[in-house]
Specification:
Number of domains: 1
Strand content: under 5%
Helix content: 55-70%
């Protein structure tokens, strides 16, 4: 599975944050008017990563993505990031920046590999969520397809 390549060399806390963010992305509905595409995800992750990198240096500055969908995604991710901070024993800002950059890099990689599919990364996130039974905020996916003999992703 491709996901293992994306979480390589992340520690346990970072891996959990990576999967939590992907569960959020898989379930994200947007505003109903404009569907989220991989480009928006990439832009949002880069902006959030820059914000956390700046914070890790002791400067509070919120980087903004250019597109409305990416801006909306950043706004809706903020409560999740605040909640995720509580589970970290290491400095959160630096770890979060690494994970956010990794997601942005993963999106770029899939956009290059599957240039015709504008939601290749989001499709992958949905597949991972379905296979693992993960849902945002630690809930369970209520999907009959995820029950039974479906293989489960095991994250080290």
């Amino acid at each position: 599975m491709r996901v293992s390549r994306f979480i390589r060399d992340l520690n346990d806390q970072q891996s959990r944050l990576f999967l939590t963010l992907n569960a959020f992305l898989a379930a994200y509905a947007g505003d109903g008017l404009q569907s989220l595409i991989d480009e928006d995800v990439e832009e949002a992750m880069d902006a959030l990563a820059a914000t956390y990198e700046t914070a890790a240096r002791g400067i509070i500055y919120e980087h903004q993505p250019a597109s409305r969908p990416a801006e909306r995604l950043v706004r809706e991710l903020k409560p999740l990031m605040i909640e995720a901070r509580h589970g970290f024993t290491s400095p959160f800002e630096s770890a979060a920046a690494v994970v956010l950059r990794r997601i942005a890099e993963s999106v770029r990689e899939l956009r290059r590999a599957e240039s015709e599919n504008r939601t290749a990364y989001l499709d992958l996130a949905r597949t991972v969520v379905r296979l693992t039974g993960e849902a945002p905020h630690g809930g369970e996916v209520d999907d009959e397809a995820s029950a039974g003999d479906v293989p489960r992703l095991i994250v080290p």
